Amino acid sequence: MYYPTHLLYTKDHEWIKLDGEFAFIGISDFAQKELGDIVFLDIPSLNTVVENEAVFGTVEAVKTVSDLFMPLAGKVIEVNTLLEKSPELVNKDPYGSWIIKVQVNLPIDTTHLLSAEQYTNLVQ
Fold this sequence. Notes:
- By secondary structure, the chain is an alpha+beta fold.
- Helix content is 19%, strand content 35%.
- It has a single domain (8-106), classed as CATH 2.40.50.100.
- It has a six-stranded antiparallel sheet. The chain has a three-stranded antiparallel sheet with strand order 4-6-7.
- The model has no long low-confidence stretch (mean pLDDT 96).
């Protein structure tokens, strides 16, 4: 499996791409493979404020439903509308198929997040 080194990860299998005060959030390759065929994503509305480690949505696969946990507190400023009609894009390209874009609370604390190497060690 592939874990890009420019991303950060959570123990709950979300990935985070920081861009200044913004963060793109998705699920890892490991997560999408464990879930199987993804058929639906229930994600928050725009301007929803979500606290760190709170559930911000769910991923529904053929066999199961899994919660999504917010890796950094902030406000949802964009959702990936492509996933509404084609949730299977997460299976095809988990790192290109971000789920939400968040304006994160400053200062950003990433000490609880994992590097690609740490995440690899976690899931092996």
